[in-house]
């Protein structure tokens, strides 16, 4: 992976500003302000006076620089020539492309050098695109012959092109829920005081059934993946093109570049580099909110859930009354930094120019930051090899409907990523009327009850009453084994079915069918080790089927 930019993160800045502005002295004043925009105003007035804000935060511009671009390209050359490390060199060249000034020779050179990496890795289509990009720019005459020779060679190799995508085609919703646009009609949303809004099975559900398939409300690419994933669609792409003004955003196509710019990037384009972190997703959410506010009031009845909109996510239960002062204040600092930056942006100020807009953006930034710290989803890509399983973070996303699922330490569902689409599947049979649950990270067989309860209380402010907590189920080592597994199952499991090839598809399908059958056979022994083993196998096969074998 290419080195992440130096500089402080947004988290570091918020902490620093909290200390320097002596915000701990403002606790009572802050807590007496129930309106979020007033909280942001209070903090904004304290921190924008500080030298740290003026010299570090406000001055952190994101400008192109040929000098930087050249330096990064030379680091890429070193990796390419001396170490033969083509994949990492490729990321350096992409970074060099991001920094190069529009139309410059530096940009042409970085494209040309990247085409050499793409050639070596057999991404011929992408190699050709980069050669053409270099040639259409100010590429030095003296080196053109070499590039044209590579182009001619690619033409003969095209049939050996490698695939680029880190996930397979997702399952589709077969019987669409009339009230929840991303879900099957097997579930419904209910409300009660104890569980807040929660999801219930409206008929018996079998293991493996898809319950929802939801696109993110918004997402950002993770810093460790930013040079090989499109910042708009999150697709894997080894020859990204840059935003024409800033060094931070890269796209897989012209289409994604203009979609992103028009939708949102025009407001963040010259944002300070400190905001380049997974936390950035909160600004995106607030800006979507600004766009959606009027629409929501106008045409969304309360019982219809449009989950790619802002309307649902803003209503998520945050239990604000339980947050301590620093956790309430940090969102106001982050919102103030973002607000300051947006006010510097003409596109933003010309569109949102009323006092009401001003108040709304502060409120939304504050609330969006809280949502982002409370319920972010980490999109991962998984790579299966014969010897190990590797996973990497691709992005951070916010999902409105999937966030509705409540927690259980014995969840009956798991979710799987197909790029930024999140698919939830039953991993146990669910009876009509039963609550549909996921795990917020605490599973009964891994973590003792007291620790789980403490984490859930501290982070999500509820006392878990799932069956494992109620009946004091032990962790895995202390569980009974349960009924014998069939010899067939043990034999198949001992073979490596996750070897990264597609040839064992039939074996996986057989194993999935057998695992589901065994689940029902073992169910009455729950909790037991063998049931967990079978359930784990089901989850692994679905995760494997979602993932494509790509280079990391
Ligand atoms: C992301 S939200 C889930 C949706 C939420 N129920 C709502 O009404 O918006 C997480 C919050 O849901 C509630 N919650 C989740 N699982 C729960 C459970 N097993 N028992 C009680 N409350 C739960 C807690 O208030 C938690 O902070």
From TrEMBL:
Any single GO BP term: methylation
Keyword annotations: Metal-binding, Methyltransferase, S-adenosyl-L-methionine, Transferase, Zinc, Zinc-finger
Any one Gene Ontology cellular component term annotated for this protein: cytoplasm
Matching Pfam families: SET
Keyword Ribosomal protein among UniProt keywords: no
GO molecular function: histone deacetylase binding; N-methyltransferase activity; protein methyltransferase activity; S-adenosylmethionine-dependent methyltransferase activity; zinc ion binding
Segments crossing the lipid bilayer: none
Domain of life: Eukaryota
SET domain boundaries: 185-441
Domain MYND-type positions: 230-269
Isomerase listed as a keyword: no
Stated role: Protein-lysine N-methyltransferase. Monomethylates PRMT5, modulating its transcriptional activity. May also act as a histone methyltransferase. Plays a critical role in cardiac development. Acts as a key epigenetic regulator of gene expression during cardiac development via its dual activities as a methyltransferase and negative regulator of HDAC1.
Designated name of the protein: Protein-lysine N-methyltransferase SMYD4
Organism expressing this protein natively: Psylliodes chrysocephalus
């Amino acid at each position: 992976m290419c080195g992440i930019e130096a500089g402080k993160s947004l988290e570091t800045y918020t902490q620093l500003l909290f200390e320097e502005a002596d915000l701990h002295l403002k606790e009572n004043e802050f807590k007496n302000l129930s309106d979020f925009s007033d909280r942001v105003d209070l903090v904004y007035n304290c921190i924008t006076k500080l030298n740290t804000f003026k010299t570090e935060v406000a001055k952190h511009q994101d400008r192109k620089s040929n000098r930087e671009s050249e330096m990064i390209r030379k680091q890429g050359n070193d990796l390419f020539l001396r170490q033969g490390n083509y994949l990492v060199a490729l990321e350096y060249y992409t970074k060099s492309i991001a920094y190069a000034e529009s139309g410059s020779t530096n940009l042409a050179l970085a494209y040309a050098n990247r085409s050499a990496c793409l050639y070596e890795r057999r991404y011929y289509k992408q190699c050709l695109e980069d050669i053409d990009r270099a040639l259409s720019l100010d590429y030095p005459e003296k080196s053109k012959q070499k590039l044209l020779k590579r182009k001619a060679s690619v033409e003969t190799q095209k049939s050996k092109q490698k695939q680029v995508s880190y996930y397979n085609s997702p399952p589709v919703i077969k019987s669409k829920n009339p009230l929840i646009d991303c879900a099957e009609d097997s579930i419904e949303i209910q409300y009660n005081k104890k569980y807040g809004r929660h999801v219930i099975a409206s008929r018996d559900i079998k293991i493996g059934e898809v319950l929802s398939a939801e696109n993110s409300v918004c997402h950002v690419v993770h810093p460790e993946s930013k040079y090989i994933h499109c910042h708009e669609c999150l697709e894997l792409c080894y020859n990204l093109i840059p935003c024409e003004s800033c060094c931070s955003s890269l796209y897989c196509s012209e289409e994604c570049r203009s979609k992103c710019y028009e939708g949102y990037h025009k407001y963040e384009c010259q944002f300070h580099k400190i905001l380049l972190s997974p936390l950035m997703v909160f600004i995106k959410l607030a800006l979507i909110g600004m766009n959606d506010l009027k629409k929501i009031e106008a045409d969304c009845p309360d019982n219809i859930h449009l989950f790619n909109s802002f309307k649902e996510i803003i209503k998520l239960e945050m239990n604000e009354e339980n947050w301590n002062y620093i956790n309430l204040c940090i969102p106001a600092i982050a919102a103030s930094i973002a607000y300051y930056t947006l006010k510097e942006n003409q596109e933003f100020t010309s569109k949102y120019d009323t006092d009401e807009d001003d108040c709304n953006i502060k409120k939304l930034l504050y609330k969006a930051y809280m949502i982002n710290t409370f319920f972010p989803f980490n999109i991962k890509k998984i790579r299966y090899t014969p010897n190990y399983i590797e996973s990497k973070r691709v992005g951070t996303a916010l999902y409105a409907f999937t966030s509705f699922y409540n927690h259980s330490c014995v969840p009956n569902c798991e979710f799987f990523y197909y790029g930024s689409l999140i698919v939830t599947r039953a991993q146990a049979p669910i009876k009509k009327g039963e609550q549909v649950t996921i795990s917020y990270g605490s599973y009964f067989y891994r973590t003792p009850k007291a620790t789980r309860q403490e984490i859930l209380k501290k982070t999500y402010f509820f006392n878990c009453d799932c069956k494992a907590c109620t009946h004091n189920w032990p962790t895995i080592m202390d569980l009974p084994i349960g009924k014998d597994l069939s010899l067939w199952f043990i034999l198949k499991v001992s073979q490596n079915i996750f070897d990264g090839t597609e040839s064992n598809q039939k074996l996986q399908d057989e194993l999935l069918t057998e695992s589901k059958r065994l689940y029902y056979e073992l169910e009455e022994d729950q909790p037991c080790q063998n049931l967990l083993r079978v359930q784990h196998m089901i989850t692994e096969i679905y995760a494997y089927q979602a993932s494509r074998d790509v280079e990391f």
